[in-house]
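Reply to dn_fold:

You asked what the input looked like. This is it:
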Amino acid sequence: MAKKEKKEQPQQETPVEETPVEEVPQADPWEEKYNAEHDAYLRLAADYDNFRKRTIKEKEQSYGNGKADAVEKLLPVYDNLERALNQPTEDAAYKKGVEMTMTQLVSIFTSLGVEIFGEVGETFDPNIHNAVMHTEDDSAAENTITQVFQKGFKLGEKIVRFAMVQVAN
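and this is what came back:
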């Protein structure tokens, strides 16, 4: 048997076009160093600006915190003067002296920006009041303060002392 031979056809070669390789310009080492130094300078300037702003904010907060601490230290004096005013006395000069001292202390608090809150009849707010007692009183509206045991003090947005109150349902 005769073997069939395959005829191989010559493959046509397609000419390959060689594309010229574009040369990438070499980066200038001086320009790279300049860009790196410039970036470092900008970062340093931004860090300094952030530091300056942070220290100004901390300085303002420390003044406010110091003022709040001083007011907090004076609160027992306020409480004692308030108790003395609520006590019956026959001595008019004594009562007048205590009233004058209390008036002067309240005016100092006011000049420092301290707000005194916690009055009978106000609506109870758990953010500024501390309810220590609850009462069932049909004559009072719901969540109304019926008795104040200790006044509250606020300096700006900071609560120095919560008002201690009794609340009706």
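Residues 29-86 form the longest helix (58 residues).
Hope that clears it up.
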